[in-house]
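User: Can you help me understand a structure? I only have the sequence.
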Amino acid sequence: VDPLGIHTGESIVVAPSQTLTNLDYNTLRSTAIKVARHIGIVGECNIQYALNPDSNQYYIIEMNARLSRSSALASKATGYPLAYVAAKLALGKPLTELKNSVTDSTTACFEPSLDYIVVKVPRWDLGKFIRVNTKIGSSMKSVGEGMAIGRTFEEALQKALRMVDENVMGFDHSVAELSEEVLRNPSDKRIFVLAKALYDGYTVDRLHELTKIDRWFLYRMENISKFALKLNACGMKVEDTDRQMLLGAKQRGFSDKQVSHLMGSTELAVRLQRKALKVVPFVKQIDTVAAEYPAATNYLYLTYHGDRHDVAYGNSNYIMVLGSGVYRIGSSVEFDWCGVGCIRELRRRGYSTIMVNCNPETVSTDYDECDRLYFEEISFETVMDIYDLEVPEGMILSMGGQLPNNIAMALHRQKVRILGTSPESIDNAENRFKFSRLLDNIGIQQPQWKELTNLEAALEFCRGVRFPVLVRPSYVLSGAAMSVAYTEEDLEIYLTRAGKVTKEYPVVITKFILEAKEIDVDAVAHDGEVLCMAISEHVENAGVHSGDASLILPAQGLNEETRGRIRDIVYAIGRALNVTGPFNMQLIAKNNQLKVIECNLRVSRSFPFVSKTLNT
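Assistant: Let's start by predicting it. Here is the structure, written out as tokens:
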């Protein structure tokens, strides 16, 4: 989507190409074949072109005689396993002998043909850093990417934007302020500046002049903005909305939450109304051959552009596992390792498995790892749509990091059968106020704390315990919006930032203890009884995030008495929260005192480290 000069990893990418003419496409294809033959490529290579949109002029920028960063994306987008086929070719196998694993009947000597559209959107975490340059260009700054599949560009784009940031509702005009400077010189927020510009009435021609983005993409984005204006101005209650209006919104990629926001209602009200009007998604297969041959694939996506499912339903012997979504600072391959391990163990025990995830870079989105793969966003709406279709025996949240935990209570209210720790216990651990109160009730020490009600009350508490203090939002991963405030000015800045992140979730202010040792505990329990645990020790003092700290296992600086007290604390909290499954806890030790910082009722980033160290 972005013009030349923006790194591939920084760009919104679309497949198949939407704006190339037939001549352009075949010229670039023929050139690629000539170059590969001339150099003698066996396996995969990657070629990047610069193409003049106003003429047939083109240049080869570079060629890499290897797999590239986009190889996984291309494989997941098309269903054609590039690395697998390249490896077979390197071993001397001809394409005619390799079977297309998706159709299970044709050979691998074909070019994938798509009857859907794929949109990849990068994920940046530049907000984690102070005074960072947010401009994007030829050097890569993104840390992950989400890939969405739909039947129209509008549908796939809005899905992809929600995948990379769960706090965004889609092509949302309320995320960023209008700035022609950002439109000319793109930043990580340019897509949302575009949304704001279109919502405010900028023309496609003016935006093309500013951004050099092809008018085709801008017209598609304009379709979304026009429909958002229509929903906002219709003046109807959700209960009075007709089928055509709701179907139109869903076909343009609007989520229930987005519709409710524009119409002044609630996500659940929109869901109930569209189900009453039979506005529901249909399940389609990725088949690589545009439905020319029957597909045997379990690689699925949801769309509102359809009238029947590509797969049959009725077998409820499934266990549904939620993945961790896009990679970001603090959530990377560690959670995927846990999710894949869970899927493999379930299959080994004879269960059929369903994986829901949206990250093209992960093993969990390899369609041969599970019985059914839904390449979809991890949101309440989408997970419920899949759950209603599949009616599985249960759902596992604890392997997917923070995203599944964030929707645990919403799923529980809809009577979803959650396997493992109950959603109420998850809420008691994730909600900082409830967890702090639980620790008080069972007599376990914690740093002095107070729930945020207003700035003045927060300042009064901080003056009492004295700075520094830790500002801690609820339901976050990798310390998002968690900051140490050393002055009253710091506190005001951090409270503003935390409030934007947490919305309805409370923020707790905790006394920050200097020069203390931090201890990490990973454990597994059943019905509140701890089955196994590992105690790791930070080399750095408390205050360095566990993802940035050097970790030692087994801990070297703890005596047997301290280990025993840590075990007692872990056992007591496991029983109080009635944990069934994995959990992680952080404690601080100073002056022979142990205090609990937090407890997460899910796998943590350190689970693979602990498992591989202990071979457990």
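Now, to help you interpret it: The chain has a mean pLDDT of 90. The first helix runs from residue 22 to 39. Let me know which part you'd like to focus on.
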